[in-house]
Design a protein that fits this description.
The chain is built from five helices and 17 strands.
Length: 293
């Protein structure tokens, strides 16, 4: 396959959805101008991260798939001839909403989608109020640039998700993300959390012999309730190779980059470290239990 040029768009979001979309389109165009064949956006990129509070009226932000966003970004993908990974608040029907990644093919069509499987419920991250857990499984999406194992944010902490995407043929793991620090945690604790977040995903790369692309949002977002100081998203988007080697690491500024991913390196790495060969699939039934004791 050779090298794949991947665009990564790290940005802040405002309450003005149309302004966010225009900024996204500008950044996507910048990546395409630099030769990107695939562009990855952050989690829930059209709006602010609305899950800081539980407010049923915010379900009005949800949209069908196909819908306005897939139409808008599909037209842009077709114009630029790129594959595009979106992250949308999906309205399935009244009362059923998902946190959904959508992959747009370079002809503007929908190549596939993934509904976030692991849904957090933490201070300032009240996602269980809004999102029904995904029901599409861990199925990679076939595209003209490769087979993409797209997962979403909280899925990052689960080796099972990465493993199943790899076992189902993913050639690249992709994580649109919205994660940052809660002000009640000390700066030291937040730094440890950010490092752990990067380390666990580098571990997924190593364990599965696959490149990983993680695109996080950045900037401060207020808590609409005023009960907390809000969230400070880390940025720190990154790309690593199949041995966890860092290809690029962002800071916390808004930025778009295009990186070269060696899609042939997986073959070389897996021959030297044949983890899939040595898996004891006969000895793993307890993995399906909540707890072993």
């Amino acid at each position: 396959m050779g090298y794949l040029k991947v665009g990564m768009v790290q940005m802040s979001c405002s309450p003005d959805i149309q302004a966010n979309i225009e900024k996204l389109k500008k950044n996507i165009r910048q990546c395409a101008a630099l030769g990107a064949q695939l562009v990855v956006l952050q989690e829930l990129h059209n709006s602010v991260y609305f899950c800081q509070t539980e407010n049923a009226s915010l379900c009005d932000l949800a949209e069908p798939i196909p819908g306005p966003s897939t139409e808008t970004f599909g037209a842009l993908a077709k114009e630029l001839g790129i594959v595009l990974v979106l992250s949308l608040f999906e309205r399935r029907t009244a009362g059923i909403y998902h946190n959904t990644a959508v992959v747009i093919e370079k002809d503007g069509s929908i190549a596939g989608k993934y509904r976030k499987m692991h849904i957090p419920d933490d201070p300032c991250y009240y996602e269980k109020f809004y999102f029904t857990p995904g029901d599409l499984g861990f199925r990679p999406i076939e595209t003209s640039v490769g087979t993409l194992g797209v997962l979403v944010c909280w899925d990052q902490w689960y080796p099972e998700a990465a493993r199943l995407m790899a076992l189902n043929g993913a050639q690249l793991l992709i994580y649109p993300t919205a994660i940052g620090g809660v002000a009640t945690d000390s700066p030291f604790e937040q730094a440890l959390q950010c490092e752990a977040w990067q380390l666990v995903q580098r571990g997924h790369a190593v364990a599965n012999g696959l490149p990983v692309i993680t695109v996080n949002r950045t900037g401060h977002e207020d808590d609409p309730s005023g009960n907390t100081p809000g969230l400070e998203f880390w940025g720190n988007s990154f790309a690593v190779g199949p041995q966890g080697e860092i290809i690029t690491m962002f800071g916390d500024d808004e930025e778009s980059r295009v990186v070269d991913i060696d899609m042939d390196r997986t073959e070389y790495v897996r021959r030297g470290w044949p983890f899939f060969r040595d898996r004891r699939i006969d000895a793993y039934p307890d993995i399906l239990k909540r707890y072993g004791k």
